[in-house]
Amino acid sequence: MDTKKIYPWYFAIGAVLLYFVFFFLPGILGICLSFTDWNIYFNDLHFVGLDNYRRVLSAEYTQYIGNTLYFTLVTTIAKTVLGCLIALLLTQRFIKAKNFQRMVFFSPQVLSYLVVGLVFRSMLHPTRGFLNNFLNSIGLENLSRNWLTDLNIVFPTVMAVDVWKGVGYIMVVIIAGLISISPTYYEAAEIDGANFFQKFTKITLPLLLPVIVNITILNLTYGLRVFDMIYALTNGGPGNATGVINTAVYKEFSKGDLAMGTTLSTVLFVILISLIYFIIRSMENKEVKM
Amino acid sequence: MNSLIIKKTRHVVLNIFSLICVLIVVVPFYVVIVNSFKTSTEANRMSINLPTTFHFENYATVIEKGKLFTSFYNSLLYSVVSVCIIIICVLAAAFVISRNTKGINKVFYYFIITGLAMPINNVSLFKVLQFLNLMNTRVGIIFIYSAVNIPLSLFIAYGFVATIPRELDEAAILDGCTPIQLFTKIIVPLLKPIASTLAVLNMMAVWNDFTMPLYYLNNSKKWPMTLAVYNFFGAFENSWNLVCADIVLTILPVLLVFIFGQKYIVGGVSAGAVKG
Questions:
Q1: Residues 69-88 of A with CB under 8 A from B
Q2: Domain carrying residue B169
Q3: What is the C-alpha separation between A121 and A127, in angstroms, rounded?
Q4: Can you tell me the distance from the alpha carbon of B274 to that of A140, in angstroms, rounded to the nearest whole number?
Q5: Angle of CA points B153, B190, B160, to nearest 5°
Q6: Does A127 fall in a domain?
């Protein structure tokens, strides 16, 4: 039968058009506009070559890029390791009320990043927040901090809140991966006298590898694009201590310096694409070896 | 005997450990809920104590001062309409692209799938919206939400369509169905499970989004709940009780969707990530 007639291409046109106009076109247009002096105050555009990219190399913007990479690296590792641990714990037979606990861990995931940010902003208020009050009431005054204003501690705090929200999602994905591993492997290993650690490194980890690669890609793309959480918690402050690329884009956008905003967006685009290309290539090499 | 005791204690310790982890997740929710019923002086020192008397009128105050009816309506409108657009467009596209993977369809598929990794360029999207006269409009925001969520939805639906046997299509065509009849009468009823997953996932994504209205809506009458609660937080930072009540009301609808649509969410999440 003629597949072209039964499955006409115009069925796809709605999705393609919407995606093209509101997603792809801005991406391409943004790359072109990053070579101009586009701003909100003048109507005419001038070609300025690589000027905007030269400005990206200044201390302020390199700090944003560095912060973004740092945030991505730490949260990716923390979410993967913690997610793995919790998933392993919540698939053990002796743990009580497993399904309920899984639901609780997943629940922050359905909340908006903004709301989570606001909840923690009130919880972490230096004098009136819950955390410091709680630490004082159990006699640990010296542990209380200015969580969101102290330069030394603000970035770890932000990352901790992000992990708090994101770890449940990773846990659910890893649990799905763990359940799909056939129990016969473990039974065979048990007969051979393998201990828990050996079973984990020799069976669980290798079979979980494809899932771990997927969640790493998810975590990396999330971390590099992070905006809501940081905007709600600190808005990039104090100073520029927690500023990341996307908060900087919004800052330039509200200042009216649109060219700089789109340049930063383009830089982010290049970082993301090259990272994903690199990961997929290195995975392909591994598969060939196996 | 000794090893049995060690095993038992290890089980108890691990159970306690997981309970502590659960508490770390639950406590913030609990603190917010408890403080939403206190007076503003009582809530001033956020604590886990129960309020001396429950002040339900906090919620009435918040609904009035936070203009929650308008923002609730906006959130509902944006999420429902864009979810409908996404489901119609994505199911139709996934059907033809998954059935006929050659030629233009292949191009379409990879074209849309690149959106999974691509960051959206909000600044130049501003230019596109200006050009189309869609800045500060509800229509504009709905189109953006539909477009942004299409890549992941198509990716999930594409895999699902492949599980429906092709023989059904052939039988229907032999019986004289047109392609449109084939799709609406035969395929769509079979796609209901994946449509529910897409509906729940996208509903929550749109409901929780904050970036798009921040960039493209400067009229507070068109703000969804997220942006409204953010501004409420700024204005009432000294009365935690009201802020907490507002947060509770914002969380409530999503939490209800989560509790009732749980199997769709968890299924969709792991399907999307494990297949990768």
A1: 86
A2: 60-275
A3: 12
A4: 43
A5: 40
A6: yes
Whole-model pTM? 0.89
In single-letter form, the type of residue at position A237 comes to G
Instruction: State the number of CA atoms in the 13 A half-sphere of B80 facing the CB.
Output: 6
CB-based contact (8 Å) between A254 and chain B? no
Q: Can you give the CATH number for the domain in which A109 is found? A: 1.10.3720.10
Examine residue A24 and state whether it is found in any structural domain, yes or no.
no
Look at A253 and B123 and tell me if their CB atoms are within 8 Å.
Answer: yes
State whether residue A47 is helix, strand or coil. strand
Nearest-CA distance B29 → chain A (Å): 8
> CA B271, CA A14: separation in Å to the nearest integer?
24
pLDDT tens figures, B90-136: 999 999 998 888 888 888 988 898 888 788 899 899 989 999 999 99
Count how many domains chain B has. 1
Q: At B122, which CATH number?
A: 1.10.3720.10
The shares of helix, strand and coil residues in chain B, as percent rounded to the nearest 5, are 80, 0, 20
Residue-wise pLDDT tens digits, A100-133 = 888 889 888 888 999 999 999 888 888 888 888 8
Q: Which of residues 200-219 of A touch B (CB under 8 A)?
A: 210-211, 213-215, 217-218
Of residues B52, B47, B51, B55, the one with CA closest to residue B31: B47
A158 lies in which domain range? Answer: 32-289
Instruction: Tell me how many domains chain A contains.
Output: 1
